[in-house]
């Protein structure tokens, strides 16, 4: 059989590009760095949105929408923020046929404009916490774009909250980190992310602390899958977000922000994909079971349609393919590429014996199953394969993480995976040295795996890796 | 009681602005013409999206996402299209700190960029119809902005489809018009829109036919709530969307596009709002029943919480307000403003008699109901009020529509409502004359109320009105 994709071992970046094109997930847009998300890719993003949105709402945040265009002067109010984002801005200079008096920037993120409105809406301590989220597009001009991972425009959710105390802000930033991001990524995406604190060097521009979820991809590199920030009083001071306390004093609020994006699609592909295409964990899969008519024959179409309906009635998200004028082999390759967790193949020969064939994408197994048992077998396979994909990714992370004690060994280990090294053996100077060799500190952890409050805590472990 | 809003009869536009501010639906953004959609407004938009999205998917279209930025040259390829949109474009001239070689426009609509990709994806007649939709923001620079109705940036869905024949394209544009737009607006928003054909003068820039849903607002003006377009082969020729037919000839496709936006929020407000605030039809209401603790007292909070849970278990979307440290009157005014269909007020006195008070927003009625009957009474009220709001809007449309026979009478009638006049008494010259007096032809209908194919059919009726 002709190979469909460049094998991962041969050229991982090319495999990634091939997969995105052949599985029809996305295309490059006409303006450099932009992307077109095709229906097969967007359907996964919609499932991500639904799962994340439910968790964000359960954490008490409400959705809103703030403008795409931000006055240039807003960004300048927080010094680190403008320094961090200036090189990436897209600037609108003309509107309605005229040059604008003040140029406006296309939002790279919305701390500034949301800060301005928080200041209007917050009056008393009773108005706090103010918990907002928006689903939106943002623009950060990219010189080295790669679909889903780094694009000039991407889709994301960005949460923005204001609190009365530093402790409340910290607790909420961490609640989102664990209850929304980690829970979703591990439990639904099947990606066993490591959750930790970013170093000062890797912090979000304008934050006092940045927490991160880091996933290990199929080639051993790290991908930052989502971040949650404590912004201290930086934006509250820049935008005058104040409240009157119960004691009638006027205080600045403490704010947070947190985001995850279409970059998670890249993480999904690079975590679970194999040389035959995508493998989508059942909980996030838009199509969980794909019923295929192998070839036309007596009662075959009807039997397939009946199975489709029975699966749907059992709550399974079902695809259906009875395009028997297209060769079955081509359709099967396409189903592999798109990564449907389970295929139910219905053909004349098996059906004559009362069977359909259950094909599991995760391990490639093909099992004849009596037609009457298909629903139960599919449900069991979906449950098992969700766990199998997670466990496979966890095994990779564990087997490709090396425990070392020196910076030099950590940099060496990062050639093929992750290094765990005492932070005291790295420090700011060691971090700069590692960066010079293409290796970054992904995050800091306590010895027990929990998330530290600051990088100054004793006995922290640093994870060093190459990354996307 | 101090009045909360400017009464509609005194100043309808001011009432509209007051309501949006006081009900906390939206704010003006910092860049002229942009808006901030606040959680109370956005929650309604999310319900609109969910209802529409289900209908769009039922009509076979798949969601995708195309870039915000479009090369300037794309817009120039379809002559009418560029002429229509040029005055409204926002142009990005700088990106990543550099002047761009070719300026890019922020999408005002996406026929061009989607046309470019349809051309890549369509090969054979088997690839047709290609049915796409996207939920996105678009920018059209507005000189006279008004929140939700005309804003420089708005949120919408835009559908784009390609077909093998003109007949198939027409059938699909009309299917969306009726099965998605009309069904949603009438059945869920409770707005009895009139569905008809736009005149050549009012057609979308680049279309061969534009169909529209027109609603009558509380002041008798018309609001265009959604449009569906046949684009003929205009965009297929400009972007070279061709397919190989079953007979092996190469043919240009026929395309459609169709859109509805956050403008529907303006329509909702102006259709159903009254002098006390918004009235939200139950089917679209994010909160259908709002349980309020009138004041603290023995077992009151517990009884209210029990009712909240019982309503939620019955599938009702429930709000809960036990902020008894805020005066009840203020909370009740706020609930009126926000337009929750039903309030369930639980206070010590009524509760002692075993009752809660059911307050219906639609007619203002207050009825003591035994606590054990609340769920049934709420369900019945929601059902009845959905119909009542629709019927009230229909009654207004009928009573404020005047049947006339001359252009002069039609223009006169449009001072206070809609005029129905034979299209033969208007024509292109009469339409221009009406426009000069601030009156437009909203749409054309057949005598039996059905939607004509062209404005040249005999015996058509024109609806003339002032509009937003």
Automatic annotation (TrEMBL), chains A, B:
Cited PROSITE patterns: AA_TRNA_LIGASE_II
Domain of life: Bacteria
Domain observations: Consists of three domains: the N-terminal catalytic domain, the anticodon-binding domain and the C-terminal extension.
Name recorded for this polypeptide: Proline--tRNA ligase
Quaternary structure, from the entry: Homodimer.
Protein task: Catalyzes the attachment of proline to tRNA(Pro) in a two-step reaction: proline is first activated by ATP to form Pro-AMP and then transferred to the acceptor end of tRNA(Pro).
Localization, UniProt: Cytoplasm
Main location: cytoplasm
Keyword presence, NADP: no
Reactions catalysed according to its record: tRNA(Pro) + L-proline + ATP = L-prolyl-tRNA(Pro) + AMP + diphosphate
InterPro entries assigned: aa-tRNA-synt_IIb, aa-tRNA-synth_II, aa-tRNA-synth_II/BPL/LPL, Anticodon-bd, Anticodon-bd_dom_sf, Pro-tRNA-ligase_IIa, Pro-tRNA-ligase_IIa_arc-type, Pro-tRNA_ligase_II_C
Keyword Protein biosynthesis listed: yes
Limits of the Aminoacyl-transfer RNA synthetases class-II family profile domain: 32-281
